Amino acid sequence: MIIASAPAKIILFGEHFVIYNQPAILASINKRIKIVSRIALENKNTIRIETNDFGKKTYPLSILKNTDHNSNNDFFYPIIYILKRIVQNTEKINGIDIKIESEIPYGVGLGSSAALSVAAVASIYGLYNRDSKKNEILDLAIETEKLIHRNSSGADCVISTYGGLMYYQKKLNFRPLKYSKKLNFIIINTGVKHSTGELVSVVERFRQNNFTTFLKLSNKVTNICNNAIEALEEGNIIKLGKLMNENQILLDQIGVSNKEINKIIDMSLNYGAVGSKLTGAGGGGCILSLINQEKKEYFLTNMRRNGYECFAITIENQGVKVKI
Ligand code: PMV
Q1: Are 263 and 247 contacting, i.e. CB atoms less than 8 angstroms apart?
Q2: For each of the chain's 324 residues, which pLDDT tens digit applies?
Q3: Taking the mean position of all CA atoms in its chain, how far away is CA 129?
Q4: Are 69 and 98 in contact (CB under 8 A)?
Q5: Which ligand 1 atom is nearest residue 199's CA?
Q6: Which residues line ligand 1 (CB under 6 A)?
Q7: Where does CATH 3.30.70.890 sit in the chain?
Q8: Domain 2-177+318-323 has CATH 3.40.50.300
Q9: Domain 185-313 in this protein, CATH class
Q10: Residues of the chain with CATH 3.30.230.10
């Protein structure tokens, strides 16, 4: 039996622009997805996938040889794809049981599909005795995530694999960042699921119609990220919050924010957040608010009183974990 887990993520700065080669700053958080895989003792001819929130499904083992499996509406297809890639040269395959337990809300910008891909690759590699390195896990996880979101920058899989607080630029240019003060973040879930692919298209259309503006906004994002690196090192929470607010204005300009998000952000700032922005693709999803420790309880109580689901998170230093 192999247990692997991988964390969710937040994007502090730079979502969307990261697709166009601007830097982003992101962090893994203390919510994980766990995947337990084992060779089935009974059911020798099936692959059984069971989840804590999306029910279960059984496939015949022959699906691993099937090239015309219709993957479009199959939520579990990424798991089948990973299995296909890992066992493709294995002569005899037994049945497989896979159990998925997730603490990550799905489809709201917290990187659930990347964490699923990373944890599944790590767990299934382990099952077939592959002593895989993090970079191998990452490569196959990125390939898998692209089935879900074709134009992905790869950022979500990188942070879920390596963990911590990170500077990221496309083509897998990334490095850990230092921060000198505990960062108190609150996530507010709008409850509105989004399609990352559709929102990425919204931004692409904006870019095509407003080329010069987009270039200017992109330069601003780069400056924001550079200033944020300094603020993190200095432990300057107020400066960090201001930069989040500036980043939010840019996200609003490219069309991925909306009335509800803006309303929640205004409310967050009124209840004492030092900075607040959408995190991830937008169009719904989650809002990230930075708060001073002494305001945390007041903030949570009031946001909940207004009917919003919100929770405090911390930065998680560990990325993917594997246990045999
Ligand atoms: O909402 P999410 O978790 O899918 O985050 C997407 C972040 C984007 O920058 C919009 C896309 C990407 O691939 O980086």
Answers
A1: no
A2: 999 999 999 999 999 999 999 999 999 999 999 999 999 877 778 999 999 887 899 999 989 887 766 666 778 889 999 999 998 877 778 899 999 999 999 888 999 999 999 999 999 999 987 778 999 999 999 999 988 877 788 999 999 999 999 999 998 799 999 998 999 999 999 989 888 889 999 999 999 999 999 999 999 999 999 999 999 999 999 999 999 999 999 999 999 999 999 999 999 999 999 999 999 999 999 999 999 999 999 999 999 999 999 999 999 999 999 988
A3: 27
A4: no
A5: 10
A6: 15-16, 18-19, 109, 111, 152-153, 155-156, 196, 200, 280-281, 285
A7: 185-313
A8: no
A9: alpha beta
A10: 2-177+318-323
